[in-house]
């Protein structure tokens, strides 16, 4: 087989029986004549008016190919991986079961060679070049040619384009609208000493949160803005008297809460105080 023939030959994908061209399935080729010019009508009995024909298909839509063909008798068991060919017959018509045709069907991507053609001869002494002898069946001889085949190229499925995409045009583009924040920031309050202290506390809370943003560092107050009522902000700026919040310096806090812990220090050292009695000198 030349390279050109090797690249253009389609494999056989199915084999079947058919009563005539009317019962032959679509995309199947009916073998009506043998290679030596005789009728290829398989007649079951002499008194039977209609017989049946062998047909094959090369439709690759199913993704399967015929890799081998065999003829077995009714006493032989079906080989592993093989199946009997289908029957597309007229009502009440049957195929002789003394000898049956079975095929091996495999996925198209699993083999490099497959059955490329099927032929029949009426004389067993006639030889067909480049064809393999399968066997005798009901007075005919079945042959097939096997070789490399051209695998079908995958076709891309058409994609459905939505109406919105089809309405887009690169030539006529409307100017972009200005961006508007959906959640504008709250209005800025007048600066005050309390606002500065509150900002310092909020910054400290942010630093205390874990860097990974895990749920352990999230509280119910996260994301809730904190601010004083404008009434108290105004009063705090004027007198700070209504709020009754004493503002102390660092030195005032140290003087008020200074504690030397001398009692605890003496207890830790377990120092027993010396007792001096009248007229008796103390002993060291």
How is the topology of this model organized?
Layout: H1 3-8, E1 14-18, E2 28-31, E3 53-57, E4 64-73, E5 83-84, E6 86-88, E7 99-107, E8 113-121, E9 132-137, E10 140-148, H2 163-166, H3 193-208, H4 230-238, H5 250-256, H6 262-269
Parallel strand pairs: 1-6
Antiparallel strand pairs: 1-3, 2-3, 4-7, 5-7, 8-10, 9-10
Would you kindly provide a brief summary of this structure?
The protein is α+β, with helices and mostly antiparallel strands.
Explain how this protein is built.
By secondary structure, this protein is α+β, with helices and mostly antiparallel strands. Helix content is 18%, strand content 22%. It has 6 helices and 10 strands; from the N terminus they run H-E-E-E-E-E-E-E-E-E-E-H-H-H-H-H. The strands form 3 sheets. A 4-stranded mixed sheet has the order 2-3-1-6, with no helix packed on it.
